[in-house]
Input
Amino acid sequence: MTYLEVAYRYQTPPGEAELRAVDSVREVYGIQRIQFNEKERTVRVRFDASRLKGDAVAKLLRQAGIDVQEQLVLA
Output
């Protein structure tokens, strides 16, 4: 397993319904952790790169109702 971390900026803060939907994203095989930073309006996701790609992670977040805008470069 190769774990990668990706971060995305979002526009609209997630509400209760979106956060419930994110719980179902956490159950997707290969997703290890999802963290929100409300102050910076970012969401970071740690995932198994042998199972998923960054585009698939962004798609899962969008399906959960998260307004993903751009992928951030992590140092």
Remarks:
- The radius of gyration is 11 Å.
- The helical segments are 16-26, 54-63.
- The chain is about 30% helix and 35% strand.
- Strands lie at 3-10, 31-37, 42-48, 68-72.
